[in-house]
Write a structure and sequence with these properties.
The complex is a heterodimer of chains A (about 290) and B (about 290). Chain A has about 290 residues and is mostly helical. In chain A, about 70% of the residues lie in helices and about 0% in strands. Chain A contains 12 helices and 2 strands. A two-stranded antiparallel ribbon of chain A has the order 1-2. In chain A, helix 2 runs antiparallel to helix 3. The N and C termini of chain A lie far apart (about 45 Å). With about 290 residues, chain B is mostly helical. Chain B has a domain of about 200 residues. Chain B is about 75% helix and about 0% strand. Chain B has a two-stranded antiparallel sheet with strand order 1-2. The longest helix of chain B has 30 residues. Classes of the chains: A mainly alpha (about 290), B mainly alpha (about 290). At the A-B interface, helix 4, helix 10 and helix 12 of A face helix 3, helix 4, helix 9 and helix 11 of B.
Chain lengths: ~290, ~290
C-alpha cells in the first residue's frame, strides 16, 4: 500500500518538476510574468488525450504533438502580449488562462465540457505498453531528467545569459543590437512546450481529465512552487517541488474527509505563497527580485 | 420582445458588475495595484448574510448592516495585514498582485471549509412572478437591484466629487507624491479606499445573494467580471469602470443571442483579453505607465 502511495507521489512530483522548471525559464530567467502556464499544461493534456482516444494516434506522436501544440499557444500568447509589461502582462496572461479554461469547458463537441475525458489509455511505445505505475514512474523520471537537462543547458548557454540580460536590462540589450522580442518568444515557446509535455504525462497517468484540473487552483500550486523555490533558480524549483507537494500530504494522517482535505490543501498553498511573498520574496534559492 | 428582455437582463447583471468594478477601480486608482482579492469581499459578504440572517435568525436589516461592517473590515484587514507591509517593503506591484491572488484563494477555501461546497440560499425574498415592463419580464427584486446600484453609484460620484475625502482620494489617484507634499496622508486615504471599495463589494454580495444561490467559487467569477468591466471602461477612472461594467453586461447578454449560453463567461474573458491587448487603458482611461 505504502509503496503504491509513494510511487504515486513521485510520479506527480516528476510531472510538477517539469512544470516548475519550465515556468521558471519564462518567469524567472526571462522575466515574463506568465500566469498562463497552467493553460499550456491543459492544452498539452487535452491534445494528447484527444489524439490518442479519438483519432487513435500512437502515444509517442501524441506526446510530441502535445508539446508542439502547447508551444504554438505559447507563441500566440507572447505575440499577443508583446506590448504589455508588469502587472498588465500578468493580468493578460491570467486572462489567457481563463479563456483556455472556458474553451475547454464550453467547446463540448470537442472536449466534452465539464464531463471530461475518461479512459485515456496508458502510454505504449511500438507495442511496449507502460501499464504498471512502477514502469510509469521510470518513464516519468526519464522524461523529467531529459527535460531538466535540456532546460539546464539552455539557461547555462550564451542564449540563457541573453535571456537573463533581457530581464535585467532590456534597453541595454537592444542597444547591443539584440532582438529582445525574439529572445522572449523563444523562451516562451520552449517553456510552453515542456508544459505541454507535462500535460500529456498527466493525462495518460491519471487517465481522466476535465477542465477543473487546469484552472486557478493548480496555477497557484505551480506559482507557489516557483516563487518559493526562488526566481531564476533551477535548483530551487526542483527542491521546492518536493517540499510543496509533500507538505499537504501530512494532512492525510489526520483522517479528514475529502471535503475538508481539498480546501485545507489550498489554504496551505495560499498561506505558503503569502508567507514567502511577505517574508522572503526571493524564495529559498532566489537570486533576483520579482519585478 | 426578446430585445427588451436582453436589455433588462444586461442592466440587472451590469449593476452588480458595476458595484464590484467601481470598488476595484477605486482601490486601483489610489494604490496602483490590482486587488484581485476584491472578489473575496463579495463572497464573504454573501455568506455572512446567509449565516447571520438564515442561520442565526437575526432580523434582515440588522443582518445587512452587520454584513456590510464585516465586508468593510475584511477589506481593511487585507490592506493592513498584507498589502501595507508589502508596500512598506517597496514590493513591486506584481508581488502585490500575486499576494492578492493568494488572499482570494485563501478566503475562498476558508468559506468552503466552514460552509461546505453545497449551494446555499438566503431565502429572504420569496420567488415572485415577474412583472412586464415594455415586454420584458423583471421581478421586483431585480428592479430593486438596479435602483440600489444606481443610487449608490450616483452617491459614490457625489462623494468623490464634492467631499473633502473624495477630493483627497482623487488627488492621491492623480499623483501620490504631490498629494503627500500637500499634506494628504496617502496611507490613510488608501485605507479609506479599501473600506469604501469593500463596502460596495459587500452590497454587491448582498444583492447577488438575494438574487442567486451562493457558491464559494462565485468570488473569482465576479472578480473577473468586475475587473473586465473596470478595464473596458478604464481602470483608473471610476465612472469609466461603471460604464464598462454595463457594456460588459450588454455584451454578455446580447452575445448569447447568437452563441450557446455556456459561452456567457467566455465572452467576458475574450472582451478582457481584447482590451488588454489593444487598449489596456480602457475607453476612458489614461495611457500612463501601461505600455513600454
Amino acid at each position: 500500500m505504502i509503496e503504491a502511495y509513494l510511487i504515486h507521489l513521485l510520479i506527480l512530483i516528476g510531472i510538477y518538476v517539469i512544470l516548475a522548471v519550465s515556468l521558471n525559464l519564462a518567469l524567472g530567467y526571462t522575466g515574463l510574468l506568465n500566469l498562463g502556464h497552467i493553460a499550456f499544461f491543459g492544452v498539452g493534456a487535452y491534445t494528447s488525450a484527444l489524439l490518442t482516444k479519438s483519432l487513435g494516434v500512437p502515444f509517442p506522436v501524441a506526446f510530441i504533438a502535445a508539446g508542439l501544440f502547447a508551444g504554438l499557444f505559447g507563441f500566440i500568447l507572447i505575440l499577443a502580449t508583446k506590448k504589455l509589461k508588469g502587472d498588465y502582462l500578468a493580468l493578460a496572461t491570467l486572462g489567457f488562462s481563463f479563456v483556455v479554461y472556458s474553451l475547454l469547458l464550453n467547446w463540448t463537441s470537442l472536449t466534452k465540457g465539464p464531463l471530461g475525458i475518461p479512459g485515456i489509455q496508458k502510454p505504449s511505445f511500438f507495442g511496449l505498453a507502460i501499464s504498471s505505475n512502477v514502469s510509469f514512474l521510470i518513464f516519468v523520471a526519464i522524461v523529467c531528467v531529459v527535460s531538466c537537462f535540456i532546460i539546464y543547458k539552455i539557461i547555462k548557454s550564451p542564449f540563457g545569459r541573453l535571456l537573463e540580460a533581457s530581464r535585467d536590462d532590456e534597453v541595454g540589450l537592444k542597444v547591443l543590437g539584440k532582438n529582445t522580442f525574439k529572445l522572449k518568444a523563444k523562451a516562451m515557446i520552449v517553456s510552453a512546450f515542456f508544459a505541454g509535455i507535462a500535460g500529456s504525462l498527466f493525462a495518460h497517468y491519471i487517465s481522466f481529465i476535465d477542465p477543473s484540473s487546469f484552472y486557478i487552483t493548480d496555477l497557484i500550486l505551480i506559482l507557489t512552487i516557483v516563487i518559493a523555490g526562488g526566481i531564476a533558480s533551477f535548483k530551487g524549483s526542483i527542491v521546492s517541488t518536493f517540499i510543496i507537494i509533500l507538505i499537504p500530504e501530512g494532512l492525510r494522517f489526520f483522517e479528514m474527509p475529502s471535503s475538508i482535505l481539498g480546501p485545507a490543501r489550498q489554504i496551505i498553498y495560499a498561506l505558503i505563497l503569502l508567507g514567502i511573498l511577505m517574508l522572503r520574496p526571493k524564495g529559498l534559492f532566489g537570486r533576483v527580485d520579482l519585478e | 420582445m426578446i430585445f427588451n428582455q436582453l436589455l433588462a437582463n444586461s442592466l440587472i447583471i451590469g449593476s452588480i458588475y458595476a458595484l464590484v468594478a467601481c470598488g476595484f477601480s477605486l482601490i486601483y486608482s489610489t494604490n496602483r495595484f490590482m486587488h484581485l482579492a476584491h472578489g473575496a469581499s463579495v463572497v464573504v459578504s454573501a455568506y455572512m448574510l446567509y449565516w447571520i440572517f438564515s442561520v442565526l435568525g437575526i432580523p434582515f436589516w440588522l443582518s445587512c448592516i452587520l454584513t456590510l461592517i464585516i465586508a468593510s473590515a475584511v477589506g481593511f484587514g487585507m490592506y493592513r495585514l498584507v498589502y501595507l507591509p508589502l508596500q512598506k517593503k517597496k514590493s513591486s506591484n506584481v508581488i502585490l498582485l500575486l499576494a492578492s491572488v493568494g488572499i482570494l484563494i485563501l478566503i475562498e477555501n476558508l468559506v468552503l471549509l466552514f460552509f461546505g461546497a453545497d449551494v446555499k440560499t438566503i431565502g429572504y425574498i420569496q420567488v415572485q412572478k415577474g412583472m412586464e415592463i415594455l415586454g420584458a419580464v423583471i421581478t421586483p427584486l431585480q428592479v430593486f437591484i438596479i435602483i440600489v446600484s444606481v443610487i449608490l453609484l450616483v452617491a459614490l460620484y457625489i462623494f468623490m466629487k464634492f467631499t473633502r475625502l473624495g477630493r483627497n482620494m482623487r488627488a492621491v489617484a492623480d499623483n501620490k507624491e504631490l498629494a503627500g507634499i500637500m499634506g494628504i496622508n496617502y496611507k490613510r486615504i488608501a485605507g479609506f479606499s479599501f473600506i469604501i471599495g469593500s463596502f460596495l463589494a459587500g452590497i454587491a454580495g448582498i444583492l447577488i445573494g438575494l438574487e442567486q444561490n451562493l457558491e464559494p467559487t462565485m468570488g473569482l467569477n465576479l472578480m473577473i467580471k468586475g475587473f473586465t468591466g473596470a478595464i473596458v471602461g478604464g481602470i483608473t477612472f471610476v465612472p469609466g469602470a461603471i460604464i464598462g461594467s454595463y457594456l460588459l453586461g450588454i455584451a454578455e447578454n446580447f452575445g448569447i443571442w447568437w452563441l450557446p449560453s455556456g459561452y456567457k463567461d467566455a465572452i467576458a474573458f475574450i472582451l478582457l483579453f481584447i482590451f488588454l491587448l489593444f487598449k489596456p487603458s480602457g475607453i476612458f482611461g489614461i495611457d500612463k505607465g501601461i505600455k513600454k
